[in-house]
Structures are given as structure tokens and as C-alpha cells.
Amino acid sequence: MAANLNALHSDSYIDISQYRDQHFKGNRYEQEKLLKQSCTLYVGNLSFYTTEEQVYELFSKSGDVKRIVMGLDKIKKTACGFCFVEYYTRGDSENAMRFINGTRLDDRIIRTDWDAGFKEGRQYGRGKSGGQVRDEYRQDYDPARGGYGKLAHLQRVADGRQKY
Amino acid sequence: YMRSKHADHRGQPHKKRRASESIEIEDRLESLICRVGEKSTSSLESNLEGLAGVLEADLPNYKNKILRILCAVARLLPEKLTVYTTLVGLLNARNYNFGGEFVEAMVRQLKETIKSNSFYEAVYVVRFLSDLVNCHVIAAPSMVAMFENFVSVIQEEDAPQVRRDWYVYAVLSSLPWVGKELYEKKDVEIDRILNQIESYLKRRQKTHVIMLQVWTAEKPHPQEEYLDCLWAQIQKLKKDRWQERHILRPYIAFDSVLCEALQHNLPPFTPPPHSETAVYPMPRVIFRMFDYTDAPEGPVMPGSHSVERFVIEENLHCIIKSHWKERKTCAAQLLSYPGKNKIPLNYHIVEVIFAELFMLPFPPHIDVMYTTLLIELCKLQPGSLPQVLAQATEMMYLRLDSMNTTCIDRFMSWFSHHLSNFQFRWSWDDWSDCLTQDLEKPKPKFVKEVLEKCMRLSYHQRMVDIVPASFAPLLPVNPLFVYKYMDESSSTLPGYPVTIAIHNAIKNRANNEEILNVLKDVPNPNQGDDDDEVDSFNPLKIEVFLQTLLHLAAKSFSHSFSALAKFHEILKALTDSDEGKLHILRVLYDVWKNHPQMISVIVDKMIRTQIVDCAAVANWIFSPEMAHDFTRFYVWEILHSTIRKMNKHVQKIQKELDEAKEKLEKQHRRRDSGDEDDDKNSDEDGLLEEQIERLQEKVETAQSEQKNLFLVIFQRFIMILTEHLVRCETAGVDSNTPWYKNCIERLQQIFLMHYQIIQQYMLTLENLLFTAELDHHILAVYQQFCALQS
């Protein structure tokens, strides 16, 4: 008896994405292996004001949360818009990928992705200014993420000076 | 399956190429079969015709694969039943032998699904077989004979009711598809079957129904037991001379081809006998919230006893079952339901989704899936679905008075999460009627809990901003820490100077020994002046240390967890006794009573790090100090989380034990094939056997702790319920207060949520707790529970 048909059991929301951590210690294969069995999710596009408590409440809807590590600006040591959520079981984290990814937290659509596992140091932004890399280069104005991106901000300051 | 990427280059390249070609073809066949019936530029009929041709051509080389795929779609895609029966009909017309082999394979599959307790899938197989009668693949008399065999299960002595129920259900639920055809050929036999079913339904017991109903009120929609509802629907169908107009029947277009085909007889089918390991489906109640008066314009909703209603609901449930993991696909499939123009589809979809969300004991899928699915549906139908959803929400609010407490919990959790995705926009003023009611009544209580849950996903000021000023009494309090030793004004409190000392010690990173030393100075209010019991329970010591520690760590969950971890040794020492454990929970409550979420996560950590045990949490929840919060949602959140942890703990150790036993068995088997040396063997065996013995002990300890936890909970329920009932009787007042309804439904909830584990304790429960002397209201809950799997 055919137990499963591939065409019938699509579960694309739990697939690993294209992103690979460049700082990961190990090769691509090892990283992918960890991603495929991981119970840890990276959560992005958070507001700088989103609290650990809010993350707990939302992510508890797919299972018991083992630990949350809030992402911090490397220099200021303040929240910089991402975090890690670790579950006790893989199944619970899969449900988060299926049902919490792409929904709103603190009025923002958040994005979750598999993470190879939290290691000390990974809670810090890797952008030159201390926050996340994406906040270095973005051009839009996002009041929940410090306003303009760092380079756009510097550009505006420079433009401002030129006007006088 | 894994397609091997490790090519053997030394091997035979032509063989490898053929193997991977054949895998490609098999994939293609799978894809073609699974996709037929989906949106296409050609008509369904021409697609089926084309596919039948392709498959017929592939039969010589891929017959087994095709058989397997068709059996699988029959079992797993019941919402496309008639598409696939038509396909099989066309194949049978072209290749009689293939038709016969398919029927045989399906009967084998039926046996396997029943034996493996996959009863829902077994129903789909039966239904598929019955629709094959319409496609001239199976001869009507042989289908009737199978139904007669099913119905004979009713006569079995000692068969549990749930077993009889299933066989009756399998017959009745196939009749919408094949009733007409069978009645035309064998009306006498069908009438006999229906009479047998009718008399069975009249005499079967329905004690369990009340436990499974979402609303206790009969109006506006009675919550019918599923077999009663289906029976009414089939009776109406028969009255309508088996005319059924909703089901899409592609085979009608092929009638001229199909009626030329030779039919097969089903092999005689004896229902597998009942076994101890059989787990039949739980009975259920049909959830209804809409009727023809609710859809304002457009097509009318089929009546509750119409067979159309049954078929629509079945199909929508099946679509969710097939696609729940992929919410966009699921929403799209639901919204493209064939025949949607003749029914108020949005209303059916919303009703079916809430039917699942509120299903007792459990929804078929995780709660959060339904929230996200509804959001996707709103995205796809922004002009119509949100309004239906708002209408549904309003209706459910209006009927809160008779809604089961567990369902109110789920309604509240769903609604608050839903609102958080839509900037908490809601017409709160529409609900201002709840402001004039006692806060313990269901409506104001519901709004209060919703706002508290919403706050967890945002923050206090936001809640103040989103509701009208008149709703202020229902707002949650600001979740601030309450520190007893706040300032100079508390300096007269006993232990105050020690709190300062502890505060400083912690800030100066003193070690545990130093801190314990400081704590020695705390007087023990429970003792006289004699010091001979230095380590006895000292509530003040616990209070001084914990209040100060949690105050320092109040900033966030992480800070509090860090504090608990850092001072774990001290906390364990302080809570060595049962009284200590209870007191630490009391202190936790005192400082964080404004922040239930914090209490919840800290209790969780304390259990996981064994500072308190599960029984202590249960005793604390039922203690007089917590009586005023007893009906609040967070309390039950904590209790159920505690029970869950206990259950998972037992499962985990049981798994370790099973794995160790398996390992030992493997070793024995390897040795029996004689390829290892004796000394090494006995050493390895010895180690494993020791490990197994240790694990066995661990399992027994854990199971006994688990049983104790449930007994404590039941005992306490019985105590407080009895107290209430006696008090009311003495005073001559009605005992059915909001508190009572909440409490008795919480007891039901415990039974329902953990019925498999609790079933192990039946003897103890009957002999020790749920005895005949108990008030009949409380005993009734126990009896309803017993009726669930009888």
C-alpha cells in the first residue's frame, strides 16, 4: 500500500531558505544538516521596541518555548530588530514556520527562518554601525527601526549640510 | 523516498539511466493523477479522458505503480472522490482485469486501514468503493452485501459502542453518493439495513454528548450527536427519493462508455474482529452556527438535515485535512470549492473552521493554524470574508452564556491573536452591554480575558487606547512588580534589614555560602526561640530572598530566568519541603500578580529546574489564596501546562526505556548469529541490563508521580465542588452560578484533554474518588467521561 505520495504531502513552509550564515564554523553540508534538524528559528523584521514577552506570547502558540535570545546592537547593546526562538522539539518549530512566519507581531509582518543554533556572539548585529546589516543599506524610513538606514541617514545629513 | 545521488560510475550506465528514467516516469504519473481535476484550460471530462488514455498505455510497464497511486488518492483525497472514481471507471471500461485488480487492492487497503486504527481513511475507502457502483466498476448487489456485513456488527455481543458506531457511520455516510443507485437495484435490502440502523440508533446510549457540545443551549441550533444528525439527513434523502443534486458527478458525462463496462463483485468482506488495541474514533457533535437566515443575499444555505449540508461539510473538512500545512494552498482550495456559486461558500467555510477549532476534546489540527488560515482567507476575499467573520464573532459573543468554557478559551485566544494582526480594530461599543453585568458573567469575563491576551501581544497603554473609555473596568492592570520591601515605609516589616543585605550581596556578586549566611538572620515566625530546627521551613526566609531576587530581576523574562539559574542551589535548599514549595509559589504570586504571563513562565522554569514539583503547583492553584483567581484563564493555562510537562516527562523516559530494550534485543540477535566474543558480550549485556533496570525504576517513579498529580487534581475538584453544592443546598439557593458552571466545565476539561492517560486510572478513580456517595452532579461528569470510549 502506498504510504505517501510526494505530490500530496507538500510542506513548503518548512523548507530551508537560501540564506547561509557566513560566520558559520563548518562547511555548507554541515550547516544544512543542522538547519534541517534545528529547533531554533531566526526571527527578523521586529520593531526595535518589540519585547521578549511579546515574542514569547506569539511563539508559544506553536509549542513550549525553550529560550529566546533578543538581538542586540553590538555597540549600544539595545534591541536591534531580530531574535532567536528555540523550541524543545522540532515539530513545534515547524509549526511556527508554517503558522507564525509571515504574520504580524507588534503590527509588523515578521519573518522566521531556520537557524543552525544559537552560539554566544550571534545575538549581535553585524552591520558596521552596530545594528543589522540590512539597516545599513536600506533606503526607506522605518520609525520602528531607527528611522532611515545608516547610509541613507548619513547621506541625508551630508545633503543637509550642503544646503547651507 | 530518497533518490540516490551517489552515482556508481563504475557500474552499468545504461541500467542507471533506465532506473532514473523510470523514476521520472513514475513521478510524472503521480503528478498527472494528483493534479487531475485542478484548474485547467480544458474541461474536466476531456482531462479525464486524456489521462485514462495515458494510463491505459502505461499499464503494461507501470501497472503496480498506477495501482498504488490510485489507492492512495482514494484514501487521501476524498474531496476529489468522484473525479477518481470516474477515472477508475474509464480504466475499467478499457481494461477489465485492471479494474478487478484495483478493487481487490482497495479491499486489502480497507482491511489495513481498519487494522491500523485509521478509521477516517477507512471511511473514505468505503465511500470510494460505493461510488464505484455509480461508475459500473462494482456490481450494486455486492456493495449491498458489504453494507449488510457492516451492519451485522450491531449484533455483536460485547462490542464497544464506538465500534458499532463506526460501521454504521461507514454505511450511512456513503449513501449520499450511492443511495439512489443501490435503492433502485435492491430496495428491500436497503430498507432492511436502514431499519436495523434505526433501531440501533434508538437504543444506543448518548451520555457522552453533553461533554462534547460547544453550546449547552438548544437554541438557535441544537448541537446534535453526529450519528443522529446523519440519520436525519439520510431519512430526508430517502424521502426525497434519493435525489441528490450537490455532488459533482463527472461519470454522468461518460455514461454511454461506462455502462458498456463489465462490473466486478466485491469479495466477501468480514469486518475484522474487535481487539484490545483497536481505537475507534471518538463520538462527536455537529457544530452549527449558521442557517438560511444568516446569509443576507445570494444563494441559500442548505438546511441542517439536508444531505447537501453533509456533503459540503465533509468536503470542506477533507480539504483542510489535505492542505492544513500550507495555508495559502488551503485557503485557495477552500475558496475554489466546486459548486460554490450555488451555496454561501464563505459561511460554510467559516462554520467548518470554527467547528474544527471548537471540537472537543481537541481540534484536528493545532489551534494557531486556524487563525492563520482565516487571515489568508480574508486576504483572498477582502470584500466578503471579513464581514462573515465579524458576523460569526458577534454571534458567538451573543451566545457566550451557554458556551462551553474550553471553547470560550479557544474563542478568546483566537480572537485576540486575530485582532493583533489587524491593529486591534473592533467595534467595541457594540459590546457595551457587557459593562452593566457582573464581572464574573461570561460576556464581561470574555472581554476582560481578550484584552488581557491582547496586551500580551502588545502593551498596556495600547489597550487603553483601543477601547472606549467606558471599558476601563475591563482593562487589565499594568503588569508591574509589587515589591513588599519597597522603601522606608516598609522598614518595620520583619526581615526588612535582611532584604537590604541580600540586595547588596547579590549586587556585589556574593557566592551562595555568603548569601545563605545572610539569610540565617531571618527570624522564623513559625518557631519559638529554640534554634534546634535550623533547617525547618521558614516562610519569611523564602519571602525575603525571593522577593528581593525577583525584584532585581524584574526587567524581563531573561533576567528572571538568569536569576533562577544563578541561585538555583539556594532556592532548592529553601524549598526542600512541600510547604516550602507551596510558599515559593505564594511569594511569586504576591510579587507578580499583575503580570500573569510572568507567573506562568516562572512556574514553568521552576518545574523544569525542579525547584517546585507538579503536585505543588496543583495544590497551590486549588489553595484558598488562589480562590479569587480560580476562574481566570491564566490559572488554567498554568495547570494544563503543568500536566503537559508531567506527561511529556513520562513519555520521554518511557521512550528511553524502550530504546534501551530494543538495543539489548538487537545485541542478542547479533550474538545469536554468532559473530562476537563471549566476554565482550556479557559485559555489554550487563551494562545495558543495568541501564534498563534503572530506567524501569525511573519510569515507575514518573508514572506514579503522574498518577498522583491527577489524583490530587480530582480530589481538590471534588472538595470545592462538594463544598459549593452543600453550601447552596443549605442556603436554599441555586447552585448553578457562573462560578459553578466554570468549575464543573474545568473538571470536564481535565477529563477530556487527558482521557487516554486517565483511562489507566479508572479503577482507582471509581473506588477512591468517584464513588456513589458523591453528589450526582459531580458523578455525572465522571460517567460522561466513561461513556466516551465504551
Describe this structure in words.
The complex is a heterodimer of chains A (164) and B (790). Chain A has helices spanning 28-37, 52-59, 90-99, 134-137, 150-163, and strands at 40-44, 65-72, 79-87, 104-105, 108-109, 111-115, 141-142, 147-148. Chain A is of the alpha+beta class and 164 residues long. The N and C termini of chain A lie far apart (79 Å). The mean pLDDT of chain A is 92. Chain B has 790 residues and is mostly helical. Chain B has a two-stranded antiparallel ribbon with strand order 1-2. Chain B is 64% helix and 1% strand. In chain B, helix 6 (140-151) runs parallel beside helix 8 (175-203) and helix 7 (161-172) packs parallel to helix 10 (226-239). The interface between A and B is large, with 34 and 46 residues.
Question: What is this structure, in a nutshell?
Answer:
The complex is a heterodimer of chains A (164) and B (790). By secondary structure, chain A is an alpha+beta fold. Chain A has helices at residues 28-37, 52-59, 90-99, 134-137, 150-163; strands spanning 40-44, 65-72, 79-87, 104-105, 108-109, 111-115, 141-142, 147-148.
Features:
heterodimer, A: 164 residues, alpha+beta, four-stranded antiparallel beta sheet, 5 helices, 8 strands, B: 790 residues, mainly alpha, two-stranded antiparallel sheet, 33 helices, 64% helix, disordered N terminus
- The number of helical segments of chain A is 5
Return the average pLDDT of chain A rounded to an integer: 92
- The assigned structural class of chain A equals alpha+beta
Number of strand segments of chain A? 8
Q: Strand order across the biggest sheet of chain A?
A: 2-3-1-6
Mean pLDDT of chain B: 92
The parts of chain B where pLDDT drops under 50 for at least 5 residues are 1-11
The class by helix and strand makeup of chain B works out as mainly alpha
Cα-based radius of gyration of chain B, to the nearest Å: 32 Å
Helix percentage range of chain B? 55-70%
InterPro entries (chain A): NCBP2 (IPR027157), NCBP2_RRM (IPR034148), Nucleotide-bd_a/b_plait_sf (IPR012677), RBD_domain_sf (IPR035979), RRM_dom (IPR000504)
Family (chain A): Belongs to the RRM NCBP2 family.
GO biological process, one term (chain A): nuclear-transcribed mRNA catabolic process, nonsense-mediated decay
Domain RRM (chain A): 39-117
